[in-house]
Specification:
The chain has 72 residues and is an all-alpha fold. The chain is built from two helices and no strands. It has one domain. 71% of the residues lie in helices and 0% in strands. The longest helix has 28 residues.
């Protein structure tokens, strides 16, 4: 009889997501700053947040599960 895999630790997953998202956000801020001079914060975020969310869903989180799943 096979046992069901245990669910991932939310705290460890949060740490791995932080480690993936923090450099992405920092890089995007530096990359977009020269292109968005004079823009309001909400306008910069309107450009940046969809990039971050898409990268999290299709790149960062799947890679965390694939490469770091044993530590979750």
């Amino acid at each position: 009889m096979t046992t069901a895999p245990r669910p991932p630790s939310r705290a460890r997953l949060a740490i791995f997501v932080f480690l993936g998202v923090y450099p992405l956000v920092t890089a995007l801020i530096y990359a977009l700053a020269p292109l968005t001079v004079g823009w309001e914060i909400w306008q910069r975020n309107l450009v940046m947040v969809p990039i971050i969310v898409a990268t999290m869903i299709w790149v960062i989180i799947p890679r965390i599960h694939r490469h770091c799943g044993r530590w979750l």
